[in-house]
């Protein structure tokens, strides 16, 4: 894959490279654990390795890549304990986003959320895991957007890291997705009903349910390792 850019400034160069790399990770082009060959990537982007290294440092701060001496830069792997920590943060932030959305979302935004639920239901019925994962991210991003809370801007990378990159590695199933869509519908109903308390409650419960499932999986794996 060859990707070329025209850069206007050094800072924009860094931002554009970092975003391009993020999108490749989100899309699974660079899978968890994959080694990122800097010389090859620099050639594909038509850039020097200096701005690429800076962009990789940005992704390292995001938790998307790790840089270990002797093994190079790799896409981060799904570490279940760290994923649980991330979901603990998401539970609080998603709750705030839903509360604010119930207070501030416009009628067109609410209508769009309802339509997304309908689309998600169809995806689950034919069970397309990749399409569901993408629709899940879009749904939660739409709530953050409707919240109009600029302090939640950091939720975007966290949302994609948990829902799009790592969580699917832990056996995403059609059954859980179907339950999640029902929970999504409850969140939208609370937002549409202009009920901030209920919106926050069900949004937090939704994320907590996923974290509980992941925690059970972690405990199961620990038990297997001890056996």
Account of the protein in words:
The model has no long low-confidence stretch (mean pLDDT 88). With 227 residues, the protein is mostly helical. A hairpin with a 3-residue loop joins strand 1 and strand 2. The radius of gyration is 19 Å and the shape is globular. Strands 1-2 form a two-stranded antiparallel sheet. It has nine helices and two strands, in the order αααββαααααα.
Topology:
Elements: H1 10-26, H2 38-45, H3 49-62, E1 65-68, E2 72-75, H4 80-104, H5 107-126, H6 129-147, H7 155-166, H8 174-192, H9 196-226
Antiparallel strand pairs: 1-2
Keywords:
mainly alpha, 2 strands, globular
Outline:
The chain is mainly alpha-helical and 227 residues long. It contains nine helices and two strands; from the N terminus they run H-H-H-E-E-H-H-H-H-H-H.
Average pLDDT, all residues: 88
Number of strands: 2
The end-to-end distance, rounded to whole angstroms, is: 45 Å
**Helix content range of the residues, please?**
over 70%
Helix-strand pattern: HHHEEHHHHHH
Structural category is mainly alpha
Q: What's the overall geometry?
A: globular
Low-pLDDT runs of 5+ residues are: none
Number of helical segments with 4 or more residues: 9
Describe the strand arrangement of the main beta sheet, using strand numbers. Answer: 1-2
Query: Could you state the oligomeric state of the chains shown?
Result: single chain
* Percent of sequence in beta strands: under 5%
**Main pleated-sheet profile:** 2 strands, antiparallel
Gyration radius, in Å: 19 Å
């Amino acid at each position: 894959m060859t990707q070329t850019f025209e850069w206007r400034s050094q800072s924009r160069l860094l931002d554009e490279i970092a975003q391009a790399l993020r999108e490749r990770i989100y899309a699974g082009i660079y899978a968890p654990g994959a080694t990122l060959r800097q010389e090859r990537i620099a050639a594909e982007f038509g850039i020097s390795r200096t701005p690429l290294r800076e962009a990789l440092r940005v992704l390292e701060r995001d938790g998307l890549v790790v840089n270990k001496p002797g093994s190079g830069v790799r896409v981060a792997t799904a570490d279940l304990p760290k994923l649980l920590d991330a979901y603990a943060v998401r539970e609080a932030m998603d709750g705030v986003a839903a509360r604010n959305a119930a207070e501030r979302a416009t009628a067109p935004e609410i209508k769009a959320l309802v339509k997304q639920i309908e689309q998600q239901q169809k995806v689950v019925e034919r069970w397309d895991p990749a399409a569901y994962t993408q629709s899940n991210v879009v749904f939660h991003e739409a709530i953050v957007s409707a919240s109009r809370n600029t302090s939640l801007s950091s939720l975007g990378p966290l949302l994609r890291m948990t829902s799009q990159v790592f969580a699917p590695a832990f056996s995403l199933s059609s059954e859980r997705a179907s339950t999640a869509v029902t929970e999504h519908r409850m969140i939208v109903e609370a937002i549409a009903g202009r009920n901030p308390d209920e919106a926050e409650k069900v949004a937090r419960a939704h994320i907590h349910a996923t974290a509980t499932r992941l925690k059970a999986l972690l405990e199961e794996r620990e038990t297997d390792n001890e056996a």
